Each structure stands twice: as structure tokens, then as C-alpha cells.
Amino acid sequence: MKKLTFNWFKWYDRKVRIICHIVFWFFFSLFYYLNYNRLAGPDTWLFTVKDWVIVFPLFYFTVPFLVNKGILGGKYYIIPIWTVFAYAWWATVNYFTCKLSLQLYPNPDERWRYYLEFVTENGIAGMFRLPNLDVFVFDFIFMVYLPIGPKLMKSLMESGYKNALLENANLSLEVKFLKSQITPHFLFNTLNNIYIMAKRFDQETPEMILKLSGLMRYILYESDSNRIALSRETAFLSDYVQLNRLKYGDAIKIDYDVENVDKPYKIAPLILVPFVENAFKHGPEVHPDNNWIQIKAWMENNVFHMEILNAAIIPEPDENGGRIFGGVGLENATKRLKYYYPEKHEITTWRENGSYHVKLKIDLK
User: Which InterPro entries match (predicted)?
Assistant: First the structure.
């Protein structure tokens, strides 16, 4: 999912909201004033104020309830109840306004008189008679739903935006959690390697500790942003491979061919090493004799390519369907790829002739 770069709620602050409401009610009043002015004559202002009395309380006091509880809350029975209430409110105010108009201006335009008498001739109950509903309902929709429509759309839009913000916040927290898991996971594996070397008094142990220090410096201080230079990430990868060369010596063959990138491409930090770590873990860690690992990476048309092959013995699934041990780093890297590069990455894995293959593509443009 793409991150939201525009914050609606930050932009739509109190000042902007007041301005928008003033402009809205100005055009609302102008629209109805011009509509009534064609026929109502001296009644124009009276009926414009009448529409204010009808729409204003519905707009501010009932529509939020309709949207939050009815439409978004899934209680759809509220929608017809609200419609009946709104119609009753409109019919009542409209009826008494027409009665008042006939008393204040007894000689209106003939067409306007016909409308006033049509509304008032059967009393307020006439506003709810079925033979008249076809006319009144259309009038109700035009007078009420037209100005309330933007309020409904805005409320729905804000609700959708809130959900999008919440989803992005949850994803961001998940990525931070996944990233925090990488450090102890990586440290645990490397310290275990150093322990084995120290136990057999390997002369390369001090250099390995120094390499580890550099790697930890990168993890703790340089990879704190969402993106880092691709060249720095591949340098970290190179140091990690060198660390394993020190550990295994000539016991395994490591072919490492990662192209140096001059262009300032950016990539999510610590997103590549889990795949390389997985190759060592399920290869030399399981069977160190006559083993090999091939790592190749290059840029092509703004797409980062990485291929990893290893003569690996993949642990069989346990009785619960999961791997016997490990898989945390690789799973986290896959989740982070989906977060940072939705629809811009491709990863494929397969076994073939006693080897394990990983192909990764990331569009960095």
C-alpha cells in the first residue's frame, strides 16, 4: 500500500473549516434565493430563511449520526428512519411557512399562489397523503438532499481517509517491529559463529569481531531511515559475506559478484541480508562439507536484480507445518518488500538438483 503524503486533517484545520462553511452557506443561500426569486416575489427571503431552518439542524446535528452510525456503522435501518424524520421536519416547517406567506402576502403571483394553496389546502396531514407524495417527495429531495449531499460525501471521504491513515500507521508500526527483529536475529547468529571460532581458538576471531562491530554500527546508526544508498547496503552485504568467509575458510566455496553502483539509487535498509543469511543457514550451517554459495547482484533499467544459489539441505517441515528452526529473518524481509515495494518487486524461490535458488527483483526508479 502506498504511503499517504497529504494529511487532510492537518490541512482542514479550524480556519479552513470555517472559511469552507461560510462559502458553502453563501452559495447555498444564493442558490435558493435565485430559485425562489423567479416566482415568490416578496416571499423570496421568507422561503430562503425557511430552507435554512430546515437544512441547518439536519446538516449539523443529524447527518453525522446518519453517516457514522447508519452508513459506516452498518446499522442501515437508521437510513429510512432518518429519511422519514427529515421529511416530517421539512413538511412541518414548509407547511407553516406557506400558511404564514398567505397571511403576509395575500396577493402573490398566480403560479406561486397555486403552490401555496396546494401545500396548505388539506392541512399538515396533506403533506403525508399518498396522492401528493410524488410532488412533495421530489420537492423534499431537491430542497434537503441537494445541500446535504456534500456533507455526506465529505463525511464518507473523511472516514475513508481515517481508515487509510490507520492502515498506514499499522503498517508502519509493523515494519518498525519487523526491522527491530532483524538486529537480535542477526546478532544471535553471528555471535554464535564467533563463539564456535573462539572455542576452537581460531586466529581469525579478532578480525571477525572487528567485522561484526562494523556491521552492528551500520544496523544501529546508519539504517534508521526508510531508504539508504544502495551502494551502502551492498557494502554491508559484502562485509557480511566476508564475515562468513572468515568463519568457514576453505570449507565452502563462496562466489560473490555484486556490481558496484555509481548512481544514487536508494533501497530499504537491511532488506537484502536475510536472503543471503538464509543461504548460509540452510547450506553450510546444515552441512559444511562440499558446500557452495553463489551470490550475484546487478542493476538493469533501474531494476535491482539479485540471485542466490546454494547447495542447501532445507529442513523438512515440522508436525505443525512450519520449519524446524529459523525463517524469521526471511519472513520479515518478505513482509518488508511488500510494504516498501508494493507491485514493484518480484521474488521467486525453488529447489533444483540439490540446490536452492532465490531470485529477487526490485524496481528502484
Answer: Bact_2-comp_sensor_kinase (IPR050640), Sig_transdc_His_kin_internal (IPR010559)
How far, in Å, are 192, 197, 242, 307 from residue 247 at the CA level?
11, 7, 9, 22
Reduced to 3 states (helix: H, G, I; strand: E, B; else coil), residue 345 is strand
Buried b (16+ CB within 10 A) or exposed e, 156-194: eeeeebeeeeeeeeebeeebeebbeebeebbeeebeebb
Give the global pTM: 0.51
Closest by CA to 327, choosing from 165, 140, 189, is 189
Question: Amino acid identity of 51?
Answer: D
Residues across the chain: 365
Task: Kindly report, residue by residue over 220-232, the tens digit of the pLDDT.
Answer: 766 667 788 898 8
246 vs 19, 170, 207, 215, CA distance in Å? Answer: 68, 40, 8, 14
Looking at residue 296, the DSSP 8-state letter turns out to be: E
pLDDT digits (tens, 9 = 90+) for 7-46: 666 777 888 889 988 998 898 888 888 888 877 788 888 8
**Residue from 40, 147, 29 nearest 86 by CA:** 147
